[in-house]
Amino acid sequence: MLTILTIVGARPQFIKAAPVSRALRRTARELLVHTGQHYDYGMSAVFFEELALPEPDYNLGIGSGSHGKQTGEMLIAIEEVLLSERPDWVLVYGDTNSTLAGALAAVKLHIPVAHVEAGLRSFNRAMPEEHNRVLTDHAADLLFCPTPHAVDLLAREGITHGVHLTGDVMLDAFLYNTVLAEQRSTILDALGLQPQTYYLATLHRPANTDDPAQLQTLLDTLTELPLPVVLPLHPRTRQQIERHGLLPKSKIKNLKLIEPVGYLDMLLLERCARLILTDSGGVQKEAYMAGVPCITLRDETEWVETLDAGWNVLAGADPDRIRATVRDFTPPAEHPPLYGDGHAADRIAEILMARG
Ligand code: UD1
Ligand code: UDP
After folding, report:
1. Whose CA is nearest to atom 4 of ligand 1?
2. Which ligand has an atom closest to residue 38 CA?
3. Residue 76 near residue 198, CB atoms below 8 Å
4. How do residues 313-343 score in pLDDT, each as one tens digit?
5. Percent above pLDDT 70 for the chain
């Protein structure tokens, strides 16, 4: 039986891995490795519970650190696991330090690598994720692309072998869990909110959070929008706010700052929001899947098809652009399927089985 060793570590990877793990375990042996990059209950365990992800076979407990320290410690620990397990494939997701460490550890031991969410590019080399993506794609033997655009971008870099257009596993997760979210989430009541009466925001990119002045400007802009803003705070952002005292009580008026929420609560918050403002990759796509207009608080995005479709607008961290976009946003009537048919995970499992 084929042994596939899956490496995850950060919040979006638990979500992406859930449907693929379900598909793989029908016919293969999957070993799950959690690097420990995210470790708070609300950033990690809640997703294992809600998504019924199996307990990790290995929890490496690496935790936070500088890029070099974090990635280096992961590399050492993953290598040990690979040496003892000798899987047929290593499967990595997305573009975090856990992704790169997994890919690098595997290729050095001549274990083939499969990359889910291959071919994404922001063309912004100041983003740590851009290096992780490029390096992982160039190390991978199988590249599972969510969109035709991703396939094209890989071809431009000379990568054509092992490339498969599968659709996006985040759509699989979205469709499967939206029904559960409707049944189970009580987040709107808990926050005293009615659908369509608030905006939802998330912020965690270093470019928006590392510079306190920039973060302050963004928070000020959010507090002054016409509707209240629900902001589940990523721990990186919370730390910056606390360290620099960015949100005195007098300023919080229109902001509902909450802890990071579980996936089901997040899906419901997204679906019922009038508008979403975010610098997250996953949240931009989910906004599209939910049919909610999105303002991306960055100057570029990997998910360009949402811009082309007219459902996502780049506003950077510029207060005037953000305010004007909130005021004028009229999404088009058309809403074409951009991320496949919700069966990307089955395709990925089939391709891995066929390759053996
Ligand atoms: C990481 C990924 C990013 C992804 C994001 C998803 C990299 C380089 N970045 O960014 O691509 O979009 O995850 O959320 O891999 N912290 C906690 N508790 C936790 C986790 C983190 O308090 O459970 C704090 C720590 O102070 C840490 C900081 O958040 O230093 C940042 O965590 P880290 O995993 O390094 O980067 P993210 O910003 O989460
Ligand atoms: N998410 C969540 N709770 C939150 C914020 C985000 O469940 O409080 C989910 C969101 O629905 C999406 C994923 O986390 O599926 C996105 O992860 P994140 O924004 O951390 O990372 P990115 O996608 O930018 O790498």
Report:
1. 96
2. 1
3. no
4. 999 999 999 999 999 999 999 999 999 999 9
5. 99
- Sequence-ordered alpha helix ranges (H) in the chain: 11-24, 45-50, 67-85, 97-108, 128-139, 148-156, 169-184, 187-191, 206-209, 212-223, 235-244, 263-272, 281-290, 304-308, 319-328, 344-355
- How many beta carbons lie within 10 A of that of residue 14, not counting itself? 25
> What residue's CA is closest to ligand 2, atom 3?
261
Instruction: Please indicate whether residue 286, judged by its CB atom, sits closer than 6 Å to ligand 2.
Output: yes
Q: Of all atoms in ligand 2, which is nearest to the CA of residue 279?
A: 24
CA of 280 to the centre of ligand 2 (A): 7
Whether residue 174 has its Cβ less than 6 Å from ligand 2: no
**pTM of the model as a whole:** 0.98
Whole-angstrom Cα distance, residue 211 to residue 214? 5
Closest alpha carbon to 139 in 196, 89, 100: 100
